[in-house]
Amino acid sequence: MIRIALTKGRIEKKAIELLTEAGYDCSELEDKGRKLVFKLKNADIEVVLAKAADVITYIEHGVCDAGIVGEDTIMEHGKWFHEILDLGFGKCKFALAGIKGMNFYEGYSHKVIASKYPKVTKNFFNQKGIDVEIVKIEGSVELAPILNLADAIVDIVETGSTLRENGLEVYEDVAYISTRLIVNTASIKLKKAEIDDLVKRLSAVISKDENDA
Ligand code: PRP
């Protein structure tokens, strides 16, 4: 048996579509109510639904063998696992953004950056050799520059409409991200056949989708 941790929310629907296309019966997941653990009917696979950062925790602790999670969460939280596949959906980017029309890099004043992703923000500015103060915000980071708490934000931009509707704009792209399949380091060896089968099935759907596009 292998256990897959699947990120709930934004990427959940696409992940279930991908698993279904790969031949797994995910009907229970489509009508799940408040249930969190699902045994697939036609495969020796258990799927658990978890918040993105927790998917990484479960994989790193070895209680889940594989996980479906965004590159954003991997960049912020993870490292002790293998990143196996780019699943090709959930495409968006990390961007530095702020009030429209301001020149962020003008002047030498001390900058305050708000983000849900302090590690990603720190790495981005470290690479530039710029020292910034980072304020951790839990959600709707766009409020921070509007309320004058921060000079800019580092956040996820997908369609750009949250920025637009709040009078903000992208100053600079930080990194492009998408959804990934990650695997526990021990499971790669101990459950090689099951993991290989999962990877093979998912890869086949991904390359088919790429060819159709
Ligand atoms: C993310 C992100 C932006 C928004 C960007 O937030 O933090 O606020 O989506 O998407 P857009 O470019 O398509 O407008 P999310 O909806 O995940 O909620 P949160 O702010 O509560 O984390």
- In spatial order, strands of the major sheet run 2-3-1-4-11-5
How many E-type strands?
A: 11
Q: Please indicate the percent range of residues in DSSP E strands (runs of 2 or more).
A: 25-35%
Helical proportion, percent range: 25-40%
The main sheet comes to: 6 strands, mixed
Shape: elongated
Backbone structural class: alpha/beta
Would you list the SSEs in sequence order as H and E? EHHEEHEHEEEHEHEHEEHH
The number of distinct helices, counting runs of at least 4 residues, comes to: 9
CA gyration radius, whole angstroms: 19 Å
Heteromolecules bound: 1-O-pyrophosphono-5-O-phosphono-alpha-D-ribofuranose
Mean pLDDT: 95
Uncertain runs are none
Distance between the termini: 34 Å
Protein traits:
single chain, about 210 residues, alpha/beta, 6-stranded mixed sheet, elongated, binds 1-O-pyrophosphono-5-O-phosphono-alpha-D-ribofuranose
Quick overview of this protein structure:
The chain has 213 residues and is α/β, with parallel strands linked by helices. The chain contains nine helices and eleven strands.
Give the SSE layout.
Blueprint: E1 2-7, H1 12-21, H2 27-30, E2 37-39, E3 45-50, H3 52-60, E4 66-70, H4 71-77, E5 82-86, E6 92-99, E7 111-115, H5 118-128, E8 132-136, H6 143-146, E9 152-157, H7 161-165, E10 168-177, E11 179-183, H8 185-190, H9 192-212
Parallel strand pairs: 1-3, 1-4, 7-8, 7-9
Antiparallel strand pairs: 2-3, 4-11, 5-11, 6-9, 6-10
Bound molecules: 1-O-pyrophosphono-5-O-phosphono-alpha-D-ribofuranose.
Residues 10, 139-142, 155-162 line the site of 1-O-pyrophosphono-5-O-phosphono-alpha-D-ribofuranose (PRP).
